[in-house]
Every structure is written in C-alpha cells, then in structure tokens.
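During the second year of the project, the team shifted from modelling isolated chains to modelling whole assemblies. The rationale, set out in the original proposal, was that interfaces cannot be judged from single-chain predictions alone. As a representative example for this report, we include one of the complexes processed in the last quarter. Its constituent sequences, exactly as entered into the pipeline, are reproduced here:
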Amino acid sequence: MILATVTGRVVATQKSDELRGSNLLLVTALGDDLEPVKDRTYVAVDCVGAGVNDHVLVEEYFALHKQQYKAMSIVGIVEKIHQGR
Amino acid sequence: MILATVTGRVVATQKSDELRGSNLLLVTALGDDLEPVKDRTYVAVDCVGAGVNDHVLVEEYFALHKQQYKAMSIVGIVEKIHQGR
Amino acid sequence: MILATVTGRVVATQKSDELRGSNLLLVTALGDDLEPVKDRTYVAVDCVGAGVNDHVLVEEYFALHKQQYKAMSIVGIVEKIHQGR
Amino acid sequence: MILATVTGRVVATQKSDELRGSNLLLVTALGDDLEPVKDRTYVAVDCVGAGVNDHVLVEEYFALHKQQYKAMSIVGIVEKIHQGR
Amino acid sequence: MILATVTGRVVATQKSDELRGSNLLLVTALGDDLEPVKDRTYVAVDCVGAGVNDHVLVEEYFALHKQQYKAMSIVGIVEKIHQGR
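Output from the structure prediction step:
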C-alpha cells in the first residue's frame, strides 16, 4: 500500500460494469516529507468514505475478488503517521 | 487506475486468442497538469467506446476473469476532473 | 520481494475489512548500499513481528488468498545480508 | 500492454517447469518516438511467432491461468501504429 | 521476466510460512550493457539451483498457485544472450 492524499475527484458516466456506483477520487502519493509527489496521481475507488485532503492508504494494484474485478482502492483513512519510531 | 488520453491506435492481425476482436488503443498517462507524460504510452483494450483525444480511466494491470485473461483496459471515459476540491 | 527497513507506523481506525486487526508499518526500500531510498516508502501489514529499524523482506504486491485479499506484507526479518558472495 | 521491439533471444536450459518448451525473446520497450528505451529490456515468452526487429505487444505482468503460471508474454505482432489519430 | 545476476544471499530465520525452506538470493537487474543496474536489487526464491554470479531469469511478480503464495522467483539460469539477432 502507499500513503497518499486525496487531491480531487473524477466524473465518468460511461464506465465498465465493475465501476458502476463507485466514488472515484484522485489520490496523489506522498513522499518522505509527507508532501504530494509530482506526477504520481492515480484514480482510486473510495471504500471508506474519504474526502479531499484526507491522508489515505491506497492499494496500488488491481485484483479479482469472488470472480469480480476490484479496481485500485482507498482502503483506510490515516489518522497518525509515526516516522522513525 | 490512471488518467490517460487516447493518443492513437494499433493494428495487430496476429495476436493471442484473448485479444481477438479487441479494439487496441494507444493511451498516454497524464501528469498533474493533465498533459501527456513522455514515454508513458501503453496499449489498452477499449471496453467503453473511447476515441482519440478522450480522457480515459485505464486499469494498468493485467488480470484473470472467469478463467480468461483480460488485458490492460480502458474502463471509463472521463467527463470532468475536479482538482483540489 | 524487496529489502526494506521499518521506518515507522501508521494508525488508521477507519479501514476496509481485510485490514482489520492488522499492524500497519512504514517500510522504506533499501538501496545497494543498504541505506533507505528517498520516496520509496510503503505501508505494509506485519506478518512476522517486526519492529522499527529491523531489516525486512517485503512482498511488494497485493494478492488474493483463499478468496480474501492480502495487502502488501512484511514476510521475513532479515538477519544477515551477504553481498557479492 | 506495452509496445516493444524484439531485440534478441535467450537460451536457458535449466528452467522451471512452466517455461519448458517456451521460446524466450528479449524485448525492449518503445518510447513515444518508437525507438527502444534504454534499460527497459525484458524476457518474454513468444506466443505468436515473433522474430527479431518485429514490433510487438507485450503483457508486462505475470499471471495464473487454469492453475498454471503464465510468464510475461508477447501477445501480438504490430503491423501499424497510428499516432495522434 | 527480467534478466538479472545473482549478487548475494539473505538469511531470514523468522519468516512467513510460504517462504519456509526457501533459498533466498539477492538478484540485481541487468541493463542493456548486461551490467547490474544501481538500486534495482530484489530478493528472490531460487527454484533452479542458481549460484552467485549466474545470469538468471526472474519473475518480478508475486502470484498465487494452487491456493498458495509464490514469491518472486528465479525461474531459469541463462546460458546465452543473443542481442540484436
């Protein structure tokens, strides 16, 4: 998983079945200074009710679940990051 | 998923069975300025009727579905991108 | 797998079901000099009881196991690294 | 999938069972100028009868099929690339 | 798959079940000049009896096999590399 911050959202009416009803958010990977890294922005399905500016955990990889696809997803909202301890 | 723009198409008569009948498009990843990023062009199967210059959602990863391969695919056409909100 | 060092931990109360009860650690990939590499920090589920500053083996990729997701994980604690022999 | 060009071949007598009988080719990813990109060379199993200098479609990712592994593969021979249209 | 060279080995007593009994080798990806590339070293399970300095084929990705994980693995020992032919 990567640490990321929610930086926006995406509207896509025409989409494949596995994305129907999904909330699609822009997420940007965080560097070691916890600032967004240039050109590392992805689109992820929100599974946890995240909002813009939240720090989140993002599964970078696509997977199958019970014979259905699951796209890249936000799987947690980060409350605290303890670095170096 | 990544944001990309459709930048062309590919003709390949000789191909593996899982690609037969697929529409193969060139897609180039978008940077944070929503401009194409150099040397990040892929070939994706179109699942949603996308055309050249459309902004699209692309699943970067290959997967199996019901015991069949599914190649990298365009899974949505993007109508609006809200950055920073 | 990659060699990494544990560089911190993450608290996330709101998270998807597959992460419930998991210990989430920050891990930073090691370069050839066995020093952490800038901006290559991930969040991994600890499977082996690792602690901060431990050298660890990390599976970079997400997978399904017995119809359940398994997130990026720490799968070993490294005791010795023999380079060039 | 990526666009690549076949740049050589590899001989490996001692190999795992899933590769037995495979034709292993060196493939190098193409940049936006359709020239090979430095240090982006892979080894792929040929599924379509490709030869050196052919432009090909390569699935970058490893997958399971009917309980058998399938290694990175050449899945199409490219005849034409239409850029920007 | 990538071409790599075996550059060392790793000792990890405390490890997850799927790695038990595995021989863990350090492998470094080779560039187009067939020299190791800086900071592209991984840990792979040896499936073919490889030794230090051998040129090997490495599956970069993690997969499931018969409901068991299979970590990144060395899947072949390379005897000859024919570039450009």
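The mean pLDDT of chain D is 87. The CA atoms of residues 30 and 36 of chain D lie 4 Å apart.
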